[in-house]
Amino acid sequence: MKKVLVIFILAVVAISGAFAQIEELSVGGGFFINSDLGGSGYTITAPGAGSLEFDSTHKGFGIFSFIDIFYAEISLGVLWGTLTDKITAPGEIEITNWDLTSIHFSILGKYPIDMIDFVVFPAIGIEYQSYSEVSYFGYPLNNPGQWSSLWIRFGGGIDYDINPDIFIRGTLLYGIKLPSDGEKVEFANAQSWASSNGLVANQNRAHGIQIKAAIGYRIW
Questions:
Q1: What is the pTM of this model?
Q2: CA-CA distance, 26 to 112, in Å (whole number)?
Q3: In principle, which of 59, 72, 89, 171 could form an S-S bond with 212, CB 3.0–4.6 Å?
Q4: CB-based burial label for 157 (10 Å; 0-12, 13-18, 19+)
């Protein structure tokens, strides 16, 4: 994940270098909601029989600030949330046993379309979710960074002008998460155990939605 973060920072620097060619620059901030739809886990299947699924869902609320250079939005936010472990086999057990704090760095490319009274924009980008605090039943983990992960997000948003300088922005994004280092280790252990017992283990695909609401100010 360190390599991912370095690449992310270089991308931010590269986009920031385009400021001199940008005619419109805005800044702002607001709040966002993350809601994972599952997939942070794995499924163990017995050939010709049923399956046992271990999954996790993360929900949280956070605040963020952004810099907008018309065709791109660069943002930094903090999210506080909980994670629920779920076991399905075929009945279902859910336990909300994790408390999480994460820092979110994102770059979102967008294409503004002027609708006279407001602006809409399709968008696609990446987000790095870096966990700073992770606790299990109230006990903090020593290495929360192992659960940090990269998201690929796409969706769209709308800007509504309050006046020529101030606007309200709403964004709705769907995301697919790449496995974190911690999830890779968990899956490798599950895969090894399943293989030694004649079972098959498959890693689930994590995904979720993100809703943002912010107020922005046009500097120029």
A1: 0.84
A2: 14
A3: 171
A4: buried
